[in-house]
Design a protein that fits this description.
With 311 residues, this protein is mainly α. It has helices at 2-14, 17-34, 43-67, 69-74, 82-85, 90-111, 114-138, 142-145, 147-150, 153-162, 169-194, 196-201, 207-210, 213-236, 242-262, 270-295.
């Protein structure tokens, strides 16, 4: 029994549960933002979409383990992963990843819609193959270019509900994608600064390894400024109201403080504190979006930019 539980835990570790939880969280926020107050909730699609997107993200994570097994063996942060320790064989991981991917597509095609299935599959390939298999080792801009795949979950969730049939579905959903896309570099580069020796040992050209820590810190500040600007766009586009705007500015101000402080940090561990705040930031920002959309519609201001056509 103990051996069975241990083996199940190894397969569970392949799915990168904490990373995938954030992915599914932002996808669900995308779903709920696509539903307008007063509309009936498509419970079957919400459930099937959440499960299908989770399975696809878990499949991509398992493929990441498979392609990164050489790197994982020499990095302290990843040395205890199932493939790195020899607890699982590559064939087992590949079979597990394929099974998850097939199950994901079957669920999305059967109970959600073709658009969501196609976008989810493209994201799976983008992260698992394009980023992990090529970009990660090819350029220090790997996380910027490859970040589009990781930024897709709100679009996947939105498409699960609407099928992207509405006139402005793409514009609204892509604003959410833009926020995560711009958030990804400062989020990941903060971790990369702290783990730069690991990446150098594994011969992965992360920005702190190729361009130095000082340059990376300034890039984090630059992208954080861009993130604060991007985070205001849902209010500008009349997707959200003053409640969200206030929350976005407070959260963004705190992120800017972390990024500025990181230029001359009090200690080496400050990069990890910045990394951890970035996770809190994204979850709270999307939480403000959700609360504003469902609980505070009366706070909607007149938009500065309206995506919808005039009546």
């Amino acid at each position: 029994m103990t051996a069975t539980v241990s083996r199940a835990g190894q397969y569970w570790a392949l799915t990168k549960p904490r990373v995938v939880a954030l992915i599914v969280f932002t996808a669900i926020i995308g779903m709920l933002l696509a539903i307008q107050p007063g509309d009936a909730w498509p419970w079957a699609r919400l459930l099937a979409g959440s499960i299908g997107i989770w399975l696809a993200a878990a499949s991509a994570a398992a493929i990441n383990h498979l392609l990164d097994q050489r790197i994982d063996k020499v990095m302290v942060r990843t040395a205890d992963r199932p493939l790195a320790t020899g607890a699982l064989r590559p064939a087992q991981v590949l079979g597990f990843a394929v099974a998850l991917g097939v199950a994901s597509m079957a669920i999305l095609l059967a109970w959600v819609n073709v658009v969501c299935a196609a976008l989810t599959f493209a994201s799976l390939i983008g992260y698992a193959i394009v980023y992990t298999g090529w970009l990660k080792r090819a350029t220090p801009q790997n996380i910027v270019i490859g970040g589009i795949a990781g930024a897709a979950p709100p679009l996947l969730g939105w498409s699960a509900v609407t099928g992207m049939q509405g006139q402005w579905d793409w514009a609204h959903a892509l604003l959410l994608v833009l926020i995560i896309f711009v958030w990804t570099p400062p989020h990941f580069w903060a971790l990369a600064i702290f783990r730069r020796e690991d990446y150098a040992r594994a011969l992965v050209p992360m920005l702190p390894v190729t361009h130095g820590v000082h340059y990376t810190r300034w890039q984090i500040l630059l992208y954080t400024v861009l993130l604060v600007v991007a985070s205001v766009l849902p209010w500008v586009a009349h997707m959200s109201g003053l409640f969200y705007l206030a929350g976005a500015l407070v959260l963004g101000g705190a992120f800017l403080w972390y990024a500025w402080k990181l230029l001359d940090p009090p200690d080496e561990f400050f990069a990890m504190r910045t990394f951890r705040y970035s996770i809190v930031y994204l979850m709270a920002l999307f939480g403000f979006l959700l609360l504003d959309h469902w609980l505070l519609p009366w706070l909607q201001p007149s938009p500065l930019l309206e995506f919808a056509p005039a009546a």
